[in-house]
Amino acid sequence: EIRGDIEGAEECFRRAFQADDANAEVAAAYAHHLHAFRRDYQSAEALYKRALALNPTASTLSNYGTLLFARGNNEEAQALYKQAITLDPGHEHSLLNYATLVAQWGQDFP
Q: Do 77 and 69 touch, CB atoms closer than 8 A?
């Protein structure tokens, strides 16, 4: 069960993004909120792409990969997880997400 003020949080993210739409961290956080709490994959995907264009990080790559994996885009998710791991080989979230994909889909690094 989700607790808290999801609508209030979303309003804060929206206002932060409107104030500084060139801030990759804000775009990535807003994307994660839309993805995780709203299941608004289309809007989240656009924000993930914006964040990655501004500043690609392992966290954003991994979170975007999770969105794609949830939508059944396994090959695209795999590519993003690999990029995240290449960028930051010790990024635990990316490693765990990639392991989950391998366990469920059966594809490993070529």
A: yes
